[in-house]
Amino acid sequence: MAVTSRSIHTGRRIWGRNRQAQRTAHAALYGAALVLGALAVYVLIGALIGRINLLIDDIRYGYPRTMHMQAFVGHEEGSSQPTHLIALNLDRQVVVLELPGGDPSRIRSITGPYLFGADEHLTPIIIGVNDVDGDTLPDLLLDVRRERIVYLNRDGVFRLPTPEEQARLMTSMLP
User: Fold this and answer.
1) Which of these, 70, 130, 127, 126, lies nearest to 103 by C-alpha position?
2) Rounded distance between C-alpha atoms, residue 74 and residue 76, angstroms
3) Are the C-beta atoms of residues 53 and 45 closer than 8 Å to each other?
C-alpha cells in the first residue's frame, strides 16, 4: 500500500487566488455600506426637520396650540370694537372662543372636532373669516391639517351648516 499526499485546497487559498471574487464581494459590501449610510442620513435629516417644524410651531402657536384674530363679523359690535376669536387645541379638542364686540363678559364657546392620531395635540388650528355663502356676513373658517371646517354666520352666532346648506356650498365651490 502506497502513501500519497495531496494538498487540500481550503477556502482561504481559493479566495486568495480568485481576485475577481474578491472585487465582487468588496463592491457588494461597499454598495451595502453606502445604502445603509444614505438611509441613516435620511432618517437623521427627517428627524431634524421634524424637530425644527415643532420648534417653529411652538414659537408661532405656543402650547397648547392657540391662534387669535379680530374681525367685524356683526355680533354685538355696537361699541365699534371688533369681535375677538381665539382658537385652541386643548389636548386634541378644538375649541373656539368668541368675544362679541371684544367684551369678555359675553364670551361664547364653539366646540370643534376631536383630533385623532399621534401627536395631534400639537396640531395648530388656523382661523379666518370669509363670506362663503354669499349672504354678506363673514363666516368662520377653521383649517386643521389641510381640512377646512366652515361655521356659517346665522342669527348672530356661528354654527355648522345643515345638510342642505352644505350641499349648496359644495356645488357653489365646484369650478
Assistant:
1) 70
2) 6
3) no
**How many other CB atoms are there within 10 angstroms of residue 76's CB atom?**
15
C-alpha cell at 73: 363679523
pLDDT at position 17 over 70: no
What is each CA distance from 93 to 69, 120, 144, 148, in whole angstroms? Answer: 19, 9, 11, 16
Q: Dmax of the chain from CA atoms?
A: 123
User: How large a percentage of the chain has pLDDT more than 70?
Assistant: 91
The CA distance from 113 to 12, in Å, is 68
Q: Name the residue type at position 24.
A: T
Query: How many beta carbons lie within 10 A of that of residue 96, not counting itself?
Result: 22
- Which cell numbers in the block locate residue 157? 352666532
Structure confidence by residue, pLDDT tens digits, 53-90: 999 988 988 888 898 998 888 877 777 788 899 999 98
Q: Would you state the cell numbers that stand for residue 44, as one nine-digit string?
A: 437623521
The model's pTM: 0.69
